[in-house]
Amino acid sequence: MPYVLPFLFLFTISASYAASLSQQESHRKMVALLAEVRAQNLDDNPYQGEGQLRQLEDQLQALPDAAPVQDRIRLHFRLGIAELFLGRERRAIDHLTAAEEMLAGQHSVPAQVVNEIHFRLGLAWLRLGETQNCVLNPNAEHCILPIRPGGFHTLPEGSRQAIPYFQAVLDNTAAEERLRLSARWLLNIAYMTLGQYPEGVPPAHRIPPEAFESQAAFPHWVNVAPALGLDTFSLSGGAVADDFDSDGYLDFFVSTSDLAGQLRFFRNGRDGTFADRTEAANLNGLLGGLNLVQADYDNDGHLDLLVLRGAWFGEHGQHPNSLLRNAGDGTFCDATFAAGLGQDHYPTQTAAWADYDLDGDLDLYIGNETTDTFVAPGQLFHNQGDGTFADVAPTAGVDQYAHAKAVVWGDYDGDRWPDLYVSNLGQPNRLYHNQGDGTFADVAPTLGVVSPRASFPAWFWDFDNDGHLDLFVAAYSATIADITAAHLGHSVSVEQARLYRGDGQGGFADVSQDRHLAQPTKPMGANFGDLDHDGFLDFYLGTGDTDYAELMPNVLYWNQAGQRFVDVTFASGLGHLQKGHGVVFADLDHDGDVDIFEQMGGAYRGDGFADVLYENPGFGHGWLAVEVVGVESNRSGIGTQLRVDVVEGGQRRSLYRWVGSGGSFGGNPLRQYVGLGSAERVAQLVVFWPKSGREQVFAEVPVNAIIRVTEGRQQLDILALPAFKFAVEHPKRAEHHLHK
Fold it and tell me: How far apart are CA 250 and CA 585, in angstroms?
């Protein structure tokens, strides 16, 4: 890591020096540092650099004429993979074809190698077809499984050329079963893109059409991002929707892990359009970022943003995070160094805000990534109330050394003190119980919530409206081989998600099987919200892996009154095949139902894709949107509990929400949306403030309204924020920047 050491020398600064920096100096320092990160990582970054490619080219060039053919095959194969990951499909195909041609007469080459070359050739051609059609000539129906006529490829070369190679793998009985399952999946997708599924697929390899049917009828959603200019093209990244200019309407931040990728800010025009205000907001030069988390950290009434960087890069990911302070005038300033958050740079993509000591200020936990070659402790930054933070993780007992992929706060035992759950990839997960004295104790083994071991996104929520926080932890272990097997009705032996039902007293029960959550999935970005406004929370998983082969549909689960979840992915039109990252549930047009935004794109330089925004078609149910403003508590109201008592069909029932941004990868608005089903009225709204332990009760709250509750004020405010329709065409589409 020679390129990292100068950064550490120049930019690792003492807390006292950080406090002396002005925020303007902090901003300039960050822009300069990110430019250095970009420049010095161009070669060595394992996902975006060209260093490995050049090494392979040198090895091939230096190979003597008398070298074994197997060595030449191996280098051409590896060069083909490297070129493909850089987005150079034609070059990849040339190298892989060269490797294939050298197989002739080489009887000593293992069948596994032959099959892998054929599989990767099929994948390279399929990827070329995706680039030519879905990337360079996109429309809203591309890559949505099952692929419908609007998503058929008009340039068929890629899929046509891919099919014989996948067929070759399937025809080779010596091929490993998991590779055969993967080839079968991609073969069916290739035929779909040509409009030849199911009839054109050889019967022996056809995945039956009923495998692509949902378990229940559900309205079809449409991707409107291209029409709104929100189809930003980038690599994997984060997304947040919230009101960043205090006009009551929801704006957008989107980021990308591309080291050269600009953080983007879109302001809601309140007329169905969104305007790119990145430059005007003083954000130019703030590059990279895999995840985003919002909060008003300094209690000034303006929502700020945390940008997380370096995840998956290991020792190459020692990039600084950014704390962007909202000045309240439409601009942001990077206050990271001034706030004391810039002393150490660890790879991360997960963090969460909470007032863990109930002093009225939001504190911050950052889950960093320890690997076999790099050590990175978890960090708990205590808010000192003056705009600065101090890392107290060691004394608090939460400085774990693990590969953290999700951190979430929630008061699972109802004692008012926020507790911390950490999802660790490949290691036991942690549930740190807040002991109320500034320290925490890991109770995950005792409570039986350490699994799944291969875990990623997680969140606290109340899925069954019993008033107790439950815990969802997704498994990150399935592949397209597992998903193919499941679609064929075969048993699948792979770790699966856990849904832990809380009892409110500090106990959990695993109800994953009972609630029908046993399907294999591999989510990264994920979030939840009430899509049909029946009062119960649904959720959406953005799935995938770094390998181009892992073309799996993102998954939508529909909550059936807390009794079970139904997979409605294919009926909804949300089964996007590209890599899903930051997921947001938000009512962007103020029509009363939440839409879904998803940041798309993979990790490798050649795996960019356009973001999507699915418009909710509406379900005809009532709703209530609640904003809370803390006075004694933190201004954002994070951690505040809401209970909405409704009368429906003459019966009274209660609906529960906790103020926060939702799941661990993607930021919902802090404004809480509560579906009311067919309720005639809201009998009362109860707001519980954990800091003080006090409740506020409001009777006969209006339905189909956006309201604001201010701590200690007995009059709620009804916000006049008219709905609008999304613009059919945006005056300027987001530009697509390809790495070719």
Answer: 11
- Prior bond of 209 cis (ω within 30°): no
637: left (phi over 0), alpha (psi -120 to 50) or beta: left
Cβ atoms within 10 Å of 383's Cβ, excluding its own: 24
Rounded mean pLDDT, 581-603:
98
- Alpha-carbon distance of 264 to 233, in angstroms, equals 11
pLDDT at 6 over 70: no
**DSSP label at residue 382:** E
At 187-214, the pLDDT tens digits run 999 999 999 999 999 999 999 999 999 9
Q: Please give the backbone phi and psi of residue 188, each rounded to the nearest 5 degrees, phi first.
A: -65, -40
**For 335-345, what is each residue's pLDDT tens digit?**
999 999 999 99
Q: Provide the residue type at 517 as one letter.
A: L
Residue count of the chain, please give it: 740
Only one residue has tokens 């919200």, namely 529
Q: In 3-state terms, what secondary structure has residue 703?
A: coil
Over range 383-411, report the average pLDDT: 98
How many other CB atoms are found less than 10 A from the CB of residue 258?
Answer: 24
CATH number of this structure's domain 51-210: 1.25.40
Cβ atoms of residues 96 and 119 within 8 Å: no
The angle that helices 157-171 and 177-193 make with each other, rounded to 10 degrees, is: 150
DSSP-derived pairing of the beta strands 622-629 and 705-710: parallel
Q: Is the pLDDT of residue 527 over 60?
A: yes
Cα separation, 113 vs 329, whole angstroms: 60
| Closest of 738, 734, 736, 615 to residue 265, by C-alpha | 734
Phi and psi torsions of 529, nearest 5°: 180, 170
How does pLDDT run across 225-266, given as a tens digit for each residue? 999 999 999 999 999 999 999 999 999 999 999 999 999 999
Share of the chain above pLDDT 90, in %: 92
Tokens of 267: 């302001």
Q: State how far the Cα of 45 lies from the Cα of 3, in Å rounded to an integer.
A: 11
Taking the chain, what is the end-to-end CA distance rounded to the nearest angstrom? 27
SS (H, E, C) 78-105: HHHHHHHHCCCHHHHHHHHHHHHHCCCC
